[in-house]
């Protein structure tokens, strides 16, 4: 059996930090409302002209550094993003170029906030299928570019940033004691499009559009579906919630994260929480959280880590891995 093992993590956050007070000056909202309803205290916004691939490139370089690897060692790049530099080419190819690579493949995966979970599962399948040995899996987003700044129900929630991991195929025994990705569970249901979407696009309006969300309905689906997909992935891995050392959830809302941990019977000291400092960075939130926690030395070899996410589509899923 081949297992996809995490060799390194890295992240990048743009310099510009926006505190909740910034919104108090512009909208009918308060720091207290944002904190208590979402857990968000601040978020980063990309600089003017700073593209998604620029942030993804910096995160990729950081992950390669931590892994002790060079771009030459990488066989391919999978970038999860819903805010690409251009309609095409894939922003992943811009990252590839930035790394000085002229070999290997590079493409984007689009599953909104679930994008990194989908990209991890995708890269894992390619590694196990023999298409690549080492894959850079990146989540990078500039949601600040698709906000409606007059909609207090959405514009306070999102931030920009990027995170990356290097996955490497290594021999395993096929048991749940192996290091690496043990199981994935992916789901989508297009009936729920209207709950969370961007009201523009190439083949419809010809504009980039702005994010629209029925937050309370997304909230209800999140609480119902996240624990379910995490349990499904654990089940496929032959593990139970009691085996979990760390939950690394998509960072959309602290209340959703707390409710999911509660449903899984996990104490909050097993949950990585970065939403207070990053806001919702969509596909970047999980690799950002992984990299921040890894940098703090919180994961020990052999730890069972569960990631889970839900976003526009709706699309949702979970990846279980052993560190
Ligand atoms: N400041 C003050 N009041 C606000 C704000 C704000 N920033 N935003 C909304 N309100 C008001 C509403 O207008 C409403 O007022 P009303 O009762 O007078 O109509 C009231 O607060 C309650 O609104 P709800 O939307 O019901 O509030 P809720 O407790 O559900 O919190 C929130 C809203 C934070 C958006 C929550 O629903 C949420 O987090 N939803 C999930 C979002 C999410 O996780 N998305 C993930 C996927 S993102 C992706 O895929 C791109």
TrEMBL record:
Q: Has UniProt tagged this entry with the keyword Acyltransferase? A: yes
Q: In which pathway does it act?
A: Lipid metabolism; fatty acid biosynthesis
ACP-binding: where is this region?
251-255
Instruction: Give an example GO cellular component term for this record.
Output: cytoplasm
Query: What residue stretch is flagged as signal peptide?
Result: none
Chief location: cytoplasm
- Which residues fall in a coiled-coil region? none
Q: What is said about its interaction partners and assembly? A: Homodimer.
Q: What does the sequence similarity comment in the record state about its family?
A: Belongs to the thiolase-like superfamily. FabH family.
* Full protein name: Beta-ketoacyl-[acyl-carrier-protein] synthase III
Q: What is the lineage of its organism?
A: Bacteria, Pseudomonadati, Pseudomonadota, Alphaproteobacteria, Rhodobacterales
Gene assigned in the entry: fabH
